[in-house]
Design brief:
The chain contains 4 helices and 8 strands; from the N terminus they run ααααββββββββ. It is α+β, with helices and mostly antiparallel strands. Keywords: Membrane, Transmembrane, Transmembrane helix. InterPro entries: ComGF.
């Protein structure tokens, strides 16, 4: 008799618990889950964003090196100075001798000299303005008695820059 009563109680309460679980879990489960496609789409966007980071760092690093490289900035100042000085002078008033450029402008004698890896500028033999440093090679040539070609090689931060300026 005890076993029959026990079976009846278990049957009644087990069925009741199963019914409660079925009703509560299925009705209260209003959470929307991500599908596999949505997850893969989000992951692909994340991977795409991550793949853009290394080229971004490379370009920023290259720009940083270029900004911090004073050799190119000094070359621009040198080219501006020599162009401004020689622009109004006839090619006949400009003498080129080895590593020297001597120009006569309105009674003044302007001299550009390359010595000891530097280019100096003097005006009427006075002053000693250093225009460029760390120069390995410097050549001046006249082209068809119309133009002056300046070839130079700059060194800075273990980099070599070959520059040509035609005036």
């Amino acid at each position: 008799m005890n076993t029959i009563l026990l079976k009846a109680i278990i049957k009644k309460y087990v069925l009741l618990i199963q019914k409660l679980i079925k009703n509560n879990v299925s009705k209260n489960n209003k959470f929307l889950a991500f599908t596999l496609i949505e997850t893969l789409f989000a992951f692909s966007i994340f991977c795409l964003a991550l793949s853009l980071i290394p080229p971004l760092f490379q370009s920023v690093n290259a720009l940083n090196n270029q900004i911090n490289d004073t050799a190119l900035i000094n070359f621009e100042f040198f080219s501006q100075d020599i162009t401004r000085e020689l622009n109004e002078i006839s090619i006949k008033n400009i003498e080129i001798d080895n590593n020297h450029l001597i120009a006569k402008k309105k009674g003044r004698l302007i001299n550009y000299t390359f010595t000891k890896e530097k280019i100096y500028k003097t005006v009427d033999g006075k002053g000693n303005i250093t225009l460029l440093q760390n120069i390995k090679d410097f050549k001046l040539t006249k082209i068809n008695n119309k133009y002056i070609k300046v070839d130079l090689t700059l060194f800075e931060n273990n980099r070599q820059y070959k520059k040509i300026l035609i005036i």
